[in-house]
Amino acid sequence: MTNRQVADLLRLIGDMLEIKGEVIYKSLAYRRAADNIEALGRDINELWREGGLRDIPGVGAALENKLDELLGTGRLGYYDKLQEEIPIGVVSLLSIPDVGPKTAKLLWEELGAVSVADVERAAREGKLRELPGLGVRSEQRILEGIASLYRRTTRIPLGAAWPVARELVQALRSRLGIQMVEPVGSLRRMKDTVGDIDLLVAYEEPEQATAAFTALPQVAEVVSHGPTRATVILHNGLQVDLRALHPERYGALLQYFTGSKDHNVALRALAQRKGLSLSEYGFKRGEEEVLCPREEDVYRILGLPWIPPELREDRGELRAAQQGALPELLQLADIRGDLHSHTNWSDAAATLLEMAQAAQGLGYEYLVISDHTQGLGIANGLDVARLRQQRAEIEGLNKRFSGFRLLRGAEVEIRGDGTLDYPDEVLQELDVVIASVHVGLRQDKETITARVVRAMRNPHVDILGHPSGRLLGYREATNVDLDSVLQVAAETGTILEVNAMPNRLDLDDVHIRRAIELGVALCINSDAHSTGGLEVMEYGVATARRGWAEARHIVNTLPVEQLRKLLTRKE
DNA sequence: GCCGTTTTCGGCCCGACTGTTTTCAGTCG
Questions:
Q1: Can you list the alpha helix ranges (DSSP code H) found in A177-294?
Q2: N or C, where is chain A less crowded by C-beta within 10 Å?
Q3: CATH number for the A156-245 domain, one of 3.30.460.10, 2.60.40.1570, 1.10.3290.10, 3.40.50.20?
Q4: Does the nearest atom of strand B lie within 7 Å of A501's Cβ?
Q5: A137: Cβ under 7 Å from strand B?
């Protein structure tokens, strides 16, 4: 079993115990252990063989025994017994926003609901409003929650799909001994969510490529399998389509399957004006075929420079390409530091030193430590006394580094009324102040916009964190009026964050582009809650590229001294 | 269920918000 699978099972048990009504700390203990196992950075099986399970924080005698059984036999009697008490379907009800353990139990015991569909049916029949503690509004809210749930299950976050695709690409490259294997479709365009995974292979014998694909160990089920294409379902439930063609047509096929559909339509129209027709097999001029082994060939024949996949949304990229005005897109290597990270001083796993070392390992010149503030009690937010203790430790660490420094920051709560969670004189002590909304997410548009704007007008606030508050596939953005926020950002010089966490990617591509138009400065941050969490930066960079961002638009491409200078400009 | 220079038992997860409440329960971060 992988660390992830073990962690998922422990979380599932945590959920079951909560529904059962066990003391909450038991569930929390399971979840804490799950988090630590996932953040382990090494194979739990190896640790188990070494007898080191107890070294994992949050694993005591009881969990050690259970993990021992689980890793040794692949089964867990305790879990099997729990399943007899709490059907797994009841746990699935927790995926509905606003349905927690109590409501899930109620729905199960009173209505026999063991699936989201059961709940939906009962809600439509008006049965939920009759249950104790629920009313018409709860019934309505649960229905809306289910609707948003259905919207989500159809798409996969980029951050979940990309590692899977990368693994498949590498497996195929090594099995076939070739390089020309690539993810295509919305995945290659780095859209924030993708519908499925599409792969492309150029191979002399396409049928051998599809055969190698369907034989991969990740494949659970072969849905269809022909000489040039195959569709499979992986063990993790994702669907993957593969197309294979002879290398002489690879460029045309790559271009075609990367899309977007709208981009391709525009491209074909351009081809027609030049007396050509363009398809997935290449160009035709009358009966004469023009093959495109490389993707650049497709664009070159149309008189265009190659257009990066992230721009291919028919949002003006063809015109820009014709005018020689394509942006020189930001690259991951341009990023010199990360302006948003958490440590075990608040709700994260790693120490200051571990985070600093991980950041240095990524080649960064600086890392901002921005733990939560006191108002976010659940995250163990820092009060002023602890903030100052942390400051002392950071200053001590900085004496040991060369060519790298930790900057002192905080992710400060924007309270319900737009005031901040630290007084100004404390904010003033910090190198970087990120202001974020975590509570009161349902405020109406006027209230929440005024609240955020008030925070941005504080001269000590450098960055507005995850501006829309969306959680991909789970929670819509808040009602905040992003247009107004962007205007105020331009006016006040507040930097807007592109939060790179795969379930956030917030700002999104569209608002990034708008921000750039308005002259709003941006930064891209991992919001890391573990050392490994720093590595999500690539998704933020990809999202910024989709928003036409160049390095000059992103403040954390600056060397540290220029950055520090920039950060004082509001004060 | 974990953990311990305050404790081997008793803390640990607090506060805002919402809806259903007329004093509170459930959810969320």
A1: 185-188, 206-214, 250-258, 261-273
A2: C
A3: 3.30.460.10
A4: no
A5: yes
Q: Is there contact between A62 and strand B, defined as CB under 7 Å from any strand atom?
A: yes
pLDDT of A151 reads: 61
Nucleotide nearest to A24 (CA to C1'): B13
Tokens, residue A553: 């638009």
A522 touches strand B (CB under 7 A): no
pTM: 0.75
The span from the CA of A155 to the CA of A472, in Å, is 9
Q: Write the DSSP string, A496-560.
A: EEEE--TTT-BS-HHHHHHHHHTT--EEEE--BSSTGGGGGHHHHHHHHHHTT-BGGGBGGGS-H
Q: How far is CA A147 from the centre of its chain?
A: 21
Instruction: State the nucleotide closest to A438 in CA–C1' terms.
Output: B29
Give average pLDDT by consecutive 10-residue segment, chain A, 571 residues.
Answer: 86 92 88 80 82 89 94 94 91 88 92 91 90 88 82 74 90 89 91 87 88 87 80 76 86 89 83 84 83 91 93 87 93 98 89 95 97 83 91 95 95 92 93 93 88 95 95 82 91 96 91 92 95 94 96 98 90 68
Q: Out of 2.170.120.20, 3.90.700.10, 3.40.50.720, 3.30.210.10, which CATH number does the structure's domain A252-322 have? A: 3.30.210.10
Within 7 Å of a protein beta carbon, the nucleotides of strand B are 1-3, 11-21, 25-29
Question: Phi first, then psi: what are they for A318, rounded to 5°?
Answer: -70, -40
